[in-house]
Structures
1.
Amino acid sequence: KKYNVAILGATGAVGREFIKLIEERNFPYNELKLLASERSAGKEIEVAGKKYTVEEARPDSFKEIQIALFAGGSISKTLAPEAVKFGAVVIDNSSAFRMDPEVPLVVPEVNPEAIKQHRGIIANPNCSTIIMVMALKPIYDSVKIKRVVVSTYQAVSGAGKEAIDELTDQVEAVMEERPVKARVLPSASLDKHYQIAFNLIPHIDIFVDGDYTKEEMKMVNETHKILNDPSIGISATTVRVPVYRAHSESINLELDGPLSPPEAKELLAKFPGVIVQDNPAEMIYPMPLLASGHDEVFVGRIREDKSVKHGLNMWVVGDQIRKGAALNAVQIAEYMIHQNLI
Ligand code: 2RA
C-alpha cells in the first residue's frame, strides 16, 4: 500500500533529511507534497529523480494527505490540527504538543506501545531526549533508574541551517583574522548573540524557572513521559558546542539495583538502534565526527561510579538531524504502517 505524504518545513535541515530518508528507505509514498513558509515557496527539489516545487503551507495543503511529517517550528501549533481535520496523521518534530496528555511522545524502540493512543498527532521528542532515552531504556528495563545527571554537548545543527553556516563563517573569520559576526546563537530570537567558534555556550532555547533552560527541562519532562516514570530524578545541563551535526551527552546514573559495566554493555549492545563503542585500550569510544550521518546512537566510556551506590557513567553520541529528529519521525511512520495503524 502507498500513502500520500506531506513534508512541512521541506527546505530546512530536518526537512531535507526527511526527503533523504524517504528516498534511502524507499518509503511507500504515492503523492508527495513539499511544504514550507511563503519565503521558501517556489523552490524546486528533486526527490527520487522527480522534481517537486515547494508550496506555501496552508490548511488545505493537507487535503488527500495521509501522513504529514512536520520538521518543527511554531507553524506546527496551527497547522497540525488542520491537517488532522483532513484525516492526516501528523508526526510533529516541534515541541508544541509533546507534553499534551492526548499526544503520544514516541521513540519507536523505546515506547512504541504509546503510538496507538494517538488522536491524529504523534510528537517527536527533542533530539537530546531521544538520544538519551535510547541509552537509558535497556538499563531502565533491567534495574530501574533512581537518578540521571546529564550534561550535553549539542551540535550547532540543532539550531538549524543558519547556525551551521554561522559556525563555518566564524571559523573562517578567525583563521583569516577578520571580525567575527554572531547573529544566531544561542537563539536567533534573543537580542544578544555569542560566538560559537572555539567557544561553548551553556544556553539552549530560553531560560525558565530556577534558571534552567527550556532545553534542560525538555530532557526532564519528556524523559518522564516517554519512560512513563515521573519518579526518576533528572538534572540536565545543555551546552552548545562548535560541532556540526551530532550531539554528545555525558550521563551519570544512580540505579535502583546492581549492574556492572560489562552487564550494562551487554544490555546496550542488544538494544535495537544502539551500538556500543567501548574499548579504552584501543581508544574506541563514540565521537560526533564518527556518529554523523548514521542512524544509530553510540554508547561508550561505560564505567562504574564508585562515589554513589549502583553508580554508572556513560558517554552517548547520536546524529541530531537523523535519529535526533528526521529518522525518529520516519521510523514512527514506518512502525504505524507495519502495524496497520494508518
Ligand atoms: C537544539 N534540541 O539542539 C534543540 C532543537 N533541535 O537546538
2.
Amino acid sequence: MMFSQLTDSLESTLKNLRGQGTLTEENVADSLREVRRAFLEADVSFNVTRDFVKAVKEKAMGKEVLTSVTPGQQIVKIIHDELVQVMGGETKELALAGKPPVGIMMVGLQGSGKTTFAAKISLYLRSKRKKKPLLVAADVYRPAAIKQLQVLGKSIGIPVYDEGEGNPVEIIQHGYEYAEKNGFDVVIYDTAGRLQIDEKLMQELEKARDAVHPEEILFVADAMIGQEAVNVAQTFFERLNFTGVCLSKMDGDARGGAALSIKKITGVPICFIGVGEKPNEIDLFHPDRMASRILG
Ligand code: GDP
C-alpha cells in the first residue's frame, strides 16, 4: 500500500467534514483504525502503535477543520509530523568528537548485518567525513566473519586488523593500540553475535567496551525481522547502552516499523540504513522518508 492510498482512505472516511467545526473523537475514529492497521502491517510493535494512536488522537481532537485542505489531509499531516518527531526529527550524524582514535563498536545478533555495516561505515567515514578508519575483526565465533571483513576491507582499500580466532576482548584492545600507533583516527570493531541473546556474549561485549571505551556503540538490527527486533534491541540496550542504531536490509520489502519501535523504546536515534550488500549501499537515516515508508 502506498502513502497515497492511506491518504485516500483517510480522505474518504472523513470526506464529509470539510469546513465543518472541529475534529471530534467520533469522526477521527475510523482514520485512527486505518493508521493502526497500517502500523501493524509495517511491523510497528503493538504497544508503540497504541501509544502513537493515542498521541495522534489527542493532537487531532478539537482541531478546527480547515477549509484549505481536506480533513483527511489534515489528519495525515498530524500523523506524519508526529511520526517524524518520534523518530528523532532530524538526521543524526556520528559525533566522533573524542580523542582519536575514536572507537565505534558494532553489536547485534549474528546475521543482523554487523560485518557489512562495519565496512559500510568505514567507507562512509572515509569518503564523507575524510577520516582514516581501521577495521578490527573481533567476530571470532562466526565461521568466515574474519575472512569476510578482510575481503570487504580489501575491496574498499581499508586496512583490517586481525589475530585470527583469538580472544575477542584482547583483539579489540590490541586493535585500539594498533590504531593509536599507526595514525588511524577512527577504529571500528566488528564483534560477535549469536543467533539468540546469550549471557556469555553480553559479558564479553561489556568487557570489550570497558577495555576501549568506544565513543559510539551501534546496535545493528535486520529490518526484515520486524517486531522481534524490538525485544532484541531492548535487551542489548539494557546491557550495553548503545548510542545509535543501524537498520540493515531496508532494500527488501520491510516497511521499517522496527525503526519507530526501537527509537520509541530505547530513545536512541537511528543513524544509518543499509540498502544492499555492497559497501557503498548505506544511507543516513532520514526520519521524514521513513515516516512516509511506514505510513505505506
Ligand atoms: P553479521 O553476522 O551480523 O556480521 O551479518 P553480515 O554482515 O554477515 O550480514 C548477513 C547477510 O546479510 C550477508 O549475506 C550480507 O551480505 C547481508 N546484508 C547485510 N546488510 C544488508 C543490506 O542492507 N541489504 C541486503 N540486501 N543484504 C544485507
3.
Amino acid sequence: DKGNHRHFMLKEIYEQPIVVAQTLKSYVRRLDDQVSLPTPDFDLSAIRRVTIVACGTSYYAGMVAKYWFEQFARVPVDIDVASEFRYRQPVMEDGGLALFISQSGETADTLAALRHARSEGQKIAVVVNVPTSTMAREADLLLPTHAGPEIGVASTKAFTCQLAVLAALAANLARAKGRLDPREEKEVVRHLSEAPAAINGALAYDEAIEAMAHLIAPARDVLYLGRGTDYPLALEGALKLKEISYIHAEGYAAGEMKHGPIALIDENVPVIVIAPSGPLFDKTVSNMQEVQARGGKVVLISDYDGIQAAGDGCMATITMPKVHPLIAPIVYAIPVQLLAYHVAVLKGTDVDQPRNLAKSVTVE
Ligand code: F6R
C-alpha cells in the first residue's frame, strides 16, 4: 500500500525518520549513553582487520563504513563489490571480520562471497533488512536493519538504516579497541539520536528539490562530486539517477576531477556537489570552482553556512539542516534520493519498477 504517495519509492523515502529511529533503538541506548550490539557475546576487541563486501547501494553504505571504521576504530579495512571479491583470490588473515551488507540478504554474489570468507576462517557479520534471509541465517553476528519491507526497486530507506547500523558498529569496534572513551561514546549516541529529526528537516526541502528537478531532467549526463564520506554518497546519487531516470550519471571523488573527468564539463553537464560545511568543505569548494571556471552548472547541496560561503554562482542550491559530520551521510542521502525521484517522475519512467532491474538479484 502506497498510502497517499504516488510511488513506493516516495513512500519509502518519507518513512526514513521513523525506520532509522526504529533501527537505532537496537544499537544505541539513550538511557546510559552507550552504543550496543544485539549479539554482545562476539569478541570485537580481537578483530584485527575488516573486509566489507556488498553490491550496488549496499556497497556504497559499506564505503561510508570504511571511513568510519578506520577513523574511529583505527582498524584496517578492505572493501570490494561481491562480484570482484569472489574471484580475485583476496588475502584474508586470521582475526579478520568479514562484513556483508544486503537489503534482501539473498544477493547471489554477496552470499557466495560470504561462504568463501567463512571457508577462509573469517568471522561473519551481516547487516541485512530481511531477518529470515539466507545471509541472516549464516551470520555469526547478525545486525538487522529495521527498515521494513522495501518495495521500490531503487533502495532508499534500507540504505540510511544500513548507515545507522554501520555507524553504531564502528563505535562498538572503537570502544572494544579502547579508542572511544565514555565521553566520546556519549557524543556518538547524541549525534546518532539526532539523525531522525535531521532527516525530517531534510524532507522539508522536497518541494524545492522537485522544482529544481526541472533543471536536471533535460540533461544527458550528470556528475556528482563529494569528498570523504560524501564521496560514496556521490556514487549513490549517480546510481539512483541512472537506474530510475535513465540519465547517464557518474560520481567522482571531488579531488579526482582534475585527473580526467573535468574534460567532460560544459554548460550541458550539471554537476551536483555534496558538501556539508566541515573539515573538507574548502577542498570540495575549490574543486567546485574549477568546474564553474569551465562553464559547469553546479547544484550545491550544503547547509546554511556552506551555501552562504560558496552558493554564489551556483545554478541552484539545496540547504540542509546543519548536522554533525557523523550523521551527514545519512541526512544528505535524502536530497540525493529526492532529486533522482523527481527527475524520474518528470521523465515519465516506471519509478518503482525501472527497466531491466529486479529487486533481488539471486543469479550471478
Ligand atoms: C540500487 C539497488 C541495488 C542493490 C543491490 C544489492 O538502488 O537497489 O544496487 O543495492 O542489488 O542488493 P541487496 O542490498 O539486496 O544485496
4.
Amino acid sequence: QAKGAGGNTLRFFNPEMQAAVMARVHLEADLHQALARDELRLHYQIQVDSQSRVTGVEALLRWQHPQRGMVAPGQFIPLAERTRLILPIGHWVLESACRQLATWAKEPALEALSISVNVSSIQFHQQDFVARVRQVLASTAANPNRLILEVTESLLMEEPERVREIMLRLNELGIRFALDDFGTGFSSLNYLKRLPLDALKIDQSFIKGVLTDPVDAAIVQATITLAASLGLAVTAEGVETEEQHQWLQEHDCKAFQGYLFGRPLAVGDLRLGQRHGLMTS
Ligand code: C2E
Ligand code: MG
Ligand code: MG
Ligand code: MG
C-alpha cells in the first residue's frame, strides 16, 4: 500500500519516523489545495465586557480536512508560514471576516460587534499589506472601525520603524490593533508607548494560574495596571472558570474571552445576543 516502502530512500527510518515524515509531506501537499478545495473555515469566539455582554468575536481559523477532520491552527499555521502559504490563507481569513462584518452591519443588534483577526508576521511584512487591507475593506464594504488586527510581540520587533508606519496607516483607516499573547514574548515597553495599540490581550498561560500561582497573579495584576496607565484596554484570554473570572473582575479587568463564555464556533452556532458566563444572576 505505502508506495515508498519498497524504495531505497526511506529504508533507514523506523516505521513511526517514516509515517511522521510522510504525514508531513502529505499535509504540505494538502495545504496547497486547501484554499482551492474550499476546506478552510472560520470559527468565532465571543469576547465579553464586565457585564458579560458580547462586544465582539475573534476569528479563529480551522481546516476541514477531508480525511483528518477538523485540523487546529497550531497544526498547520507554522507549516503555512514556512511555505508562505500563509499569504493567500491570511488574505482569505481577512476577507471572510470582513464579509461577516458587512453582514452584521445590516442588523442593528449586531452592528456594533467587532471582529479580531490574527495577523501573522509574514503577512504583515509583505510588500503591499496596507493596499491589500484597503482593497478587502473596499470590496466587502466592511466598517474598518469594527476590525481589530491581533499582532504579536515578535511581529512588532521586526523592523520596528516600518511596523510603526504600517500600523499608523492602517490606524488612519479606522482599524485598531490588539497585542496578542502579551507577556509571552520579549516586547519592550517602549513599543507600547510608540505604537498605535488599542488593547493588550493577557496570554492564557497567565490566566490559568491567577488563583494558584502568585507569580502568574502578579504578572496579570501588573499588566492590568500597566494597560490602564497607558490608556490601553486589556482582555483576559482563556478564562475557563467562574473563580478566575471573579478574580479578574476584582482586579479591574473589564474584557474577557474564554471557554467560560463560549468556545470558538461556526457563525451559525454563536449566541450573540445573550449574557454569558453568569450562572448565578
Ligand atoms: P490566539 O490568537 O491566542 O487564540 C486563542 C486560542 O486559545 C485559540 O486557539 C482558542 O481556541 C483558545 N482558547 C480560547 N479560550 C480558551 C480557554 O478558555 N481555554 C483554552 N485552553 N484555550 C482557549 P486556536 O483556535 O487553536 O488557535 C491557536 C492560535 O493559532 C491562535 O492563538 C493564533 O495565534 C493562531 N491562529 C488562529 N487563527 C489564525 C489566523 O487566522 N491567522 C493566523 N496567522 N493565526 C491564527
Ligand atoms: Mg489571537
Ligand atoms: Mg492569544
Ligand atoms: Mg496564542
